[in-house]
Amino acid sequence: MNIVVIGTGSMGKNHARVCSALGVLAGVFDADENSAKRVASSYGCRSYGTVDEIMNDKDIDGVIIATPTSHHYDIASKAMLSGKHVLLEKPVCASEDEAKRLIRLAKDAGIVFEVGQIERYNPVVRFARESLASGKFGELLTVATRRVSNFPGRIRDVGCILDIGIHDIDAIRYVVGSEVKSVHASAGRHKADGVEDHANIMLGFENGKTGVLEVNWMTPMRVRKMFLTCSGAFVELDYMNQAARISSSAYLDTENKSAYMPQVEYQNQDIMLKKQEPLMNEIEDFIGAIKEKRKPLVTGEDGLAALRIANAAVESYKTGKIIEL
Question: Does the predicted model carry a pTM greater than 0.70?
Answer without folding.
Answer: yes
